[in-house]
Amino acid sequence: MKRLVSALPLFFTAATLFAQRATPSVSPNSSPSTEDAAAAAAAATGLAGVGVACCIVYFLLIAAAIGAWIFTAIWIMRDAKSRQSENAQLVTVLGWIPFTWVIALIVHLVTRPKGNLVACPNCQKKRLEGSAVCPHCGRP
Ligand SMILES: [Zn+2]
């Protein structure tokens, strides 16, 4: 760690020198090829920046997609059980498989028993209004 810290000023000096060389110079001595190289370096740096930004956005999108998937899978699992859906097992399994959870969501929304969910008087968990027995505690 100490060696790293002592090497930092050297690194910054090198970076400054490099940056100064990379800036377009107005001196007449500089050959066009040097300026071209500097422009190419600047363009490459810009491209790298865009690439990094794209990567961050890309990973954020993936994280959002995974979050939506897990949220939906949990919701399908709970809603299917609370409503005592005939397809509860099917839509729960499909909901936890990547790329089929959208299908599971559609199937569940179409085939689930319609009605209001009310709190069970025994266990306070959600159950379908008018259901014979509670799917969570088994009491009427
Ligand atoms: Zn209950």
**Number of helical segments with 4 or more residues:** 4
For the residues shown, what is the average pLDDT?
Answer: 81
SSE-based structural type: mainly alpha
Alpha-carbon Rg, integer: 30 Å
| Parts with pLDDT < 50 across at least 5 consecutive residues | 8-18
- Could you give the order of strands across the largest sheet? 1-2
Q: How helix-rich are the residues, as a percent range?
A: 55-70%
Instruction: List cofactors, ions and other ligands.
Output: zinc ion
Entry summary:
By secondary structure, the protein is mostly helical. 65% of the residues lie in helices and 4% in strands.
Description of the structure:
This protein has four helices and two strands, in the order ααααββ. The protein has 140 residues and is mostly helical. Strand 1 (117-119) and strand 2 (126-128) form a beta hairpin. Helix 2 runs parallel beside helix 4. The termini are far apart.
How would the blueprint of this fold be written?
Blueprint: H1 2-22, H2 32-82, H3 88-95, H4 101-111, E1 117-119, E2 126-128
Antiparallel strand pairs: 1-2
The chain binds zinc ion.
Name some characteristics of this structure.
single chain; 140 residues; mainly alpha
